[in-house]
Amino acid sequence: MNLIIQAVHDIPAAHLDRLASLSQAVRAEQISPHAYRLRAARPHDAVAGFCHEHQLDFGYVDGEQQLAHFGLLVMDMDSTLISIECIDEIADMQGLKPQVAAITESAMRGEIDFAESLKRRVALLEGLDEQALNRVYDERLQLNPGAETMLAALQKHGIRTLLVSGGFTFFTDRLKARLGLDFAHANTLEIFGGKLTGKVLGKILDAQGKADWLNHTREELGLKREQVIAMGDGANDLKMMAQAGVSIAYHAKPVVREQASYALNFVGLDGLVQLLDN
Question: Which residues are catalytic?
Fold first, then answer.
């Protein structure tokens, strides 16, 4: 196993020495300005606490692992690929962001059923001009750090990308076209007379829906489960992540970090590349 150490800052040599000692690694290799690979490392209970204390991300990875072994990345949108929760920002146009954000947070922690939470949040948007969606996309939506670097690496290796979201097609469709993603699925807001009606069209794409789209796309591409990576941040991503060979919690809620193969708590999305490409 290799122990991959990453940060958003320079990693002091003393920290690497300590981690090499704990893990009994044979040597350390620098793989980027802020990432190192500790070869032939062994798991040690103290590594997690040390890394958390010093804001380091870590992961034990098979020494034979290569990014090219994978064929599909499935990712959540809100607070994973992008830095905002779109519905919270739409609600801000109505002066209702605190109320909607509170429901969003509760749903992401797994305290409220996602479909029910979405219905409650969307209902609060009734009467909002559809131009508010354009404003959110143009003025507030930003990719999370490292997104374009990650996607370029995936495309280089021929890895397909699926964006699957409990959010809205208004945003996923635009991101799919802008970033050259292969597939995208989300919920559709009902709009009548240029206004949001406060309803979602069709069946809500919830946690099970995300898992179903992962499996459908995997089968369509003729891939095995171990060739799929899934990345998310909230409780409604857990069913999807459980269907992948490798799951990554990105700046995620505790319940997601606890169940994921790896957690990226500090670095950007390009941390996926440093982690999985040996």
Answer: 76, 78
